[in-house]
Structure formats: structure tokens, C-alpha cells
Amino acid sequence: MVKDFVFPGSLIGLIVRRAEGSSQNRRHLGWRRRTRPLPESYNWWAEALHGISSDGVGTHFGPLAQGATSFANVILSAASFNQTLWKKMGQAVSTEGRALYNIGYSVLTFFSPNINVVRDPRWGGRIETAGPEDPKLVWPDYGVQFVRGLQDVEWVTEQDMVETFLRPFEMCVKEGDASSVMCSYNKINGVPSCVDTRLMKQTIRNEWNLHGYIVSDCDSLDAIYSYQHWLDFSPEEAVAAATRAGLDLDCGLFGTNYHKDHGVKAVAEGKLAEKDIDNSLRNLYMVLMRVGFFDNIPQYENLGVKDICTPENIELARESARQGIVLLKNERNTLPLASTKGNKKLKVAVVGPHAQATDVMRGNYAGPPCQITSPENGISRHVNVITRLGCDDFRCKSAHNISEAVEAANIADATIIVTGLDPYHIEGEEKDRDNLLLPGYQTHLIEQVAEASNGPVVLVIMSGGGVDISFAQNNPKIGAILWAGYPGQEGGHAIADVVFGRYNPGGRLPLTWYTNKYVNLLPITSMRLRPDTELGYPGRTYKFYDGPEILYPFGFGLSYTGFRYTIKNFLAAATAATIAMSSSHQKCKNVTYRADTFGFAPPKCQSVVVADSPCGETIKIDVQVTNTGTVDGTDVVLVYSKPPVEIDGAPLKQLAKYERVFVPAKSAKIVKFELNACEALGIVDSTAYVVLPAGKHMIQVGDGEKAVGFPVEIKF
């Protein structure tokens, strides 16, 4: 057993992510032996965010395998709201990673997925996270499914930590049995996260029962010493404090690694005990044993080059992009476009800085793809294409080439404008935005091309987050708008499939898209999710903001057909819409009610703490989804709960369940939901307890005009 291991002091080198050995040397270490000796070094850092990446030191590509399947960027995959797809992607990445390992090109441990929740629309890191605005979309869903397949200016309130920021990680560990959790560079309420004993040891290791290791984000330990100057720590004191707090592995960066460079000295100076190093090694070896590093796993031994970039995985990459693409506008049924005009192929102008995009579509943390198809190439499979970029690149700093794109649009039967952001220079890790506008002259390009076009105009936006394209939404010359995220190696094919009607889009926005005015209302450093009345800041995300600066709401997405919801029946416990729960064996807890609820009499037992409750009551709903159009389509049924309106600071609504369902034209399907009352109706109160409040809750199915719902009364 791992707990019985006795580690020699010389093994301190194994708890660094980059040591002298490399994955190429595995076969010289008795790699095919049933039992392997303790290795002198192991490269832990490899990335697999949406396919095997070339970032990190644990994976490389070469003559035997020059690339791996590059799936749609994570935020676009999240827009599919499809748990089955996420698990298939994780399985495909796992298979290709194991195959690369077998041919000597990779290690067995990967940092993936990223499940941080998006708080601010300017945050660059949102493009690599499956954590959109609602943690429900990532726990227990994206994170758990992918893991199973793969296997400082302002303080953060404890309420927001429990309700939003920690919840995806908690469920990924508890339900997905994740092997590793990464602490980041930032401080949490004044304490660097990688030396936060309460977070790493008490919460993650003990309360969540992590079976694996905790790793720092690369150079987080150096940040404690070099930039944060926390407690005036020396490098040795920083590595000792982090290890004692529960850190097992320093990712390091650019040749600097605190365990390797300062760990031995920290032990010699008495700042770090060998027993703490032993604990870290046990956690690391637990994972190496789990992935079969020491003992071959027979069912994986035959994986190799033939299992990388398979036709099935390439088609899955195309499907991952298609399912995530969101139709934002479709006036006068502009889409789908016909590929012919009379008996001739349609002549289509493909313009914009991303018309010939390839690398941009891969997003960040990507490796070399099996193949890659640009929008221009994908569209040209269907129609005759005239391509004029109109800009030198995505920055579009000059307007001197716009006239070429205008001329192309003027002579074409239809125009497709492909514009957007860039995952390497505009948004991404360490690249937050200061506005939500398109860069440079892109807006001018779109407006002038649309005005000159004599046929339908389709705008395709590539981005990780929202962009203020209200000018395009309000422009009658622009008939349709698609958000394509960063769609991966098959992005060009996927966009063409949607544009020409081979695929009916069913993606839904996992993030609210705001107008640019919204970001002028509050600083990016404001950490609160709820409105701050003292400072005049609005709330964040759909849960706490429903004001005028929303361009497209969370969950928004159109289709080439229409859908109607009908609630066929609902059962809440034994009675129709009332759940009577005994509070005799539970502790009642008061909640804070709004001051403007005149005439409201609070119940005697205002709420119960969920952790102290049996929580066996359920709400069963049958939703009939009717396709009212003449085209087969896929719909995402979103089920929300709304807390009693009298409670102060409660979410406007919160996602309880969702299901993606295919419905043929002119037919209907029943989608069954079973909601646990505590999970669906529970809220986090101002003291950071998860409580189930008494009173009249609402269950809402869908958004906007097609929303239907019913009340559920909770009584104790």
C-alpha cells in the first residue's frame, strides 16, 4: 500500500514537475516490466484541455505521431449542454494520451479540465474553462464527465466561495474522483492559495477526501516570494509553508522549481520536515499506481499510433464544434443558405480576418492537430468562394483593405463575414480585456460589407467570451449571426455544416453576453457576485443581474425550427405542489428577508441546514417538448428554480437541471426530470450555510416567451 512506502531522502527530486529524466527514456527504465522500480524522475506537467497539448514538458510530438485530435475549445463545448458528448471527448483524449505514452511521447498525468466559474466578461481565462456562469453546468456535469472519461483588491465573501467558486471543484473531487487539484497564483482574502492550509488540507484533502495530489499553477510559489512578498518569506520558507499546507507538487516554470531548487535547503535549515515530503510522495505515488505507471494495464497495452487521429475521433471533433455553435440571430430565415442558385453553385464572399483562420481555431493549450480546416475551406466544399480578408490580421489596425471585402460582397450572391477575437493576443491566460468591443476596424469592416452586399449577410464570431455586437444585432442588413467559439481542427467543416443546413444548431450560451456599457459599471477587481448597493455596482451573471445591458442572456440560442414546452405533470412529494418536511429532528435557521416585503409574516422555521437534513424529498416533472417547425432539431431544456422573493440576496434564479433532446419535425418528446428538493431549491445564506428555505419557490422550464413553470411550497 502507498501508506506503507518508506521514501529515501534523495527522492525529493520526484516532487518537482520537471526533473532530468524525460518520457523518451522510459523504455530504458524497464518500461515493459510488470513491476517497475521507483523512478529517479518523472515529468508531471502535461496538458489535455481539449486534446493532447504541446504545452508542458511531459508530452512531445515527433515522426510517429505529429499531432493529436484537437477538439473545440472548452467554452464552446460547454455550449452544447451535452454530458454524453463531454464524456466521449474525455475518453478520446484519454485514449490518445495513453497511445502517446505507449510510443514514448507522453507521460500519464495531465492537467485537465479547467472548471473555474466565469465572474467577469473581461476575464481572459474564460476561454479555457468549462466553468461558465453557473457552477451547476460544471458540477457535477462537465467536470465530472470529462474527468471520468479522462481520468486581490477586494475580498471574496464566504457566501460566494461556497456558492460559486468552490462548488465545481468540490463536486469534481467528490463525484468525479479527480486525481489532482491545482492551486493558483492569486491570494484569497490576503492568503496565497498555495499556502492556504484551510483550503488545501482542511477542505480539499480532508472534507472532500481527495485521492491524489495538489499541484501549484506554474510559478505560483515563485510569485509568493518574488511578487507578493507574503510575510517576507524566503524561497525556502515559501516552499516549506506550501508543503506543510498540503501542496504536493510544484509545477515550476522556465527552469525554476521551488521543491527542486530550495527543498533540500529548507529541510537542512529545519523549515521543512521529511515527514511532510513523505506525505507528498505518497499522494503522488498513489496517482502513478492508479494510472498503471508501475504495473501494465493489459487493456491499454496495445494502444499506439493507430489509435491517434482516428476517423472516429476526427468526426467527434467535428461534432463537438457543431453541437456548441450558437445561432444568435436569424431574421427572415436567412439561414440555412442554399448552396445553389438555380442550377449553378452559389457565389459566396467569405471575408473578415478569420476567414482563413487555422491556428486561431485551436484556441490555447492546444497541440498540433491531425488536420485543420479553415472556414474558407469548409465553405468552399459547398459553394464557389471569393475570399477577401479586409484586414491584415485580427487586430484590423488599418481600414485600407476594407474596400476589397466590400467589392467582393457587392458581386456575390451571399456574404459570410468571419471576425472576432484571438486566443493568443487579446483574450486568454494573463490577457484580460478592458472592453467588450471588436478590435480595430472590425466593426467598420462588418458595417461597410453588410451595406454593400446584394445578398444575405451572415456574421460568424470567433471568441471565447462575449462581444458587444449590438450594432450587428440591430442592423437589418445582417440577417444571421453565429457564435463559433474557437471550434478546433474541424471548425471550418462545422461552420459550413450549420450555414448550409446540414446541421441544425442547438448550442446555448454558457455565458451572458453584455453590452460594453456593463463593464463601465464596475471594476474587474470587484469580487462580489451580488449587487453592491454601497458602491453602486450591479450584480454579476444571470443569477444576480437582469438589467438593461444584457445583449444575449445565459442559455440563449436559436434554431432553424421552433419548440414549445408543456408540463404534462409534476409531483412534489405526496402532494401536487407542496412539500411538507419535518423540522423536529433538524435545526431551524433564520434567513435574512428583504426590508420592502410589507405584510410578509416570516414562518416560524425559516429554513433548515441542508447538511443536517435527510433531503430525500423529490420533485418529478414531465416536460413535453414539441417541435413546431418543419425541420428536425435539437433543443436544450433548461430547468431553473427561483427562491421565495422575500429572501434578501437570493439568486434571481438558478439552474437545477438540463437535458439536450433531439425532436423530429412536427413531433414531440417527453423529457423527465427528477429534482432533489434540497439540491434544486437550496440556497447559500449570508453566513455561507447551504439552507433550504421555507416559502413559495418557483420551478421554471425554459426562458423567455416559451418559459413555463409552477410554484412549489416548502413547509416545515
Question: Overview of this structure, please?
Answer:
Helix 2 packs parallel to helix 3, helix 3 packs across helix 5 and helix 11 crosses helix 17. By secondary structure, the protein is of the alpha/beta class. Strand 26 and strand 27 form a beta hairpin. The chain has a six-stranded mixed beta sheet with strand order 7-14-13-12-10-11. A five-stranded mixed beta sheet has the order 18-27-26-21-22. Helices cover 25% and strands 19% of the residues. It has three domains: 136 residues, TIM Barrel (Alpha-Beta Barrel), CATH 3.20.20.300; 230 residues, Rossmann fold, CATH 3.40.50.1700; 153 residues, Immunoglobulins (Immunoglobulin-like), CATH 2.60.40. The protein is globular and about 80 Å long.
In short:
This protein has 716 residues and is of the alpha/beta class. A hairpin with a 6-residue loop joins strand 26 and strand 27 (708-715). The longest helix has 20 residues, at 83-102.
- The strand line-up of the biggest sheet is 7-14-13-12-10-11
Oligomeric status? single chain
CATH class of the largest domain: Alpha Beta
CATH-derived topology of the largest domain? Rossmann fold
Number of domains: 3
Q: What is the fourth-level CATH superfamily of the largest domain?
A: Glycoside hydrolase family 3 C-terminal domain
Number of strands: 27
Largest sheet: 6 strands, mixed
Rg on CA atoms, Å: 27 Å
Enumerate the spans where pLDDT stays under 50 for 5 or more consecutive residues.
8-37
